[in-house]
Amino acid sequence: MLLYNSAVSGNCYKVRLTAAQLQIPLELQELDVVDRSQRPAVIGSLTPVLRVPVLVLDDGRPMFESNAIIDYLAEGSALMPEDPYERQQVLAWQFFEQYEIEPNLAVARFFRLFDLEPGESLWRQKQEGGRKGLDALERGLRGKEYLVADRYTVADISLYGYTHVAAEGEFDLEPYPWIRAWLERVAAQPGHIRITD
Fold it and tell me: What pLDDT, on a 0 to 100 scale, did the predictor assign at position 197?
């Protein structure tokens, strides 16, 4: 399978991490995360949204949107619950991740990684939104080892992608003991790879 990838992207990392833990080999093709001028030519026929990750199956069919890709890869494995209620819980956390975590933690991190100046108002908005998302994640993990079904699932992979690098967007995880303990458990999973691997 071919993954159109950006090494620093947490969304792409989710796909690489899932594949690594399921021992699925991937061929990577890097796309620039800042200069997106080549994307219409390179992935325009594969995804209407022109974002990475894009995974191309061996038969040529493309997939886009990180959480949808990892759910496909995890189907039939221990990472994807069979129980309908537990699957709903996985999806709920994944929707939360794309609505609350990614738009704030990822964007703040992007500004800092590439020395971009967002302006005080936008920066404050991302910081406040990120803390709100982290507060909710902390509540969701309180008293639990993992997000769904008392075991490691794609829900954890989805939330781990950007939460574990939150400090790169100037988010302090010290006030979040349940998140910090959960991050350590996720990093200890068999087959774990780092975002920079």
Answer: 66
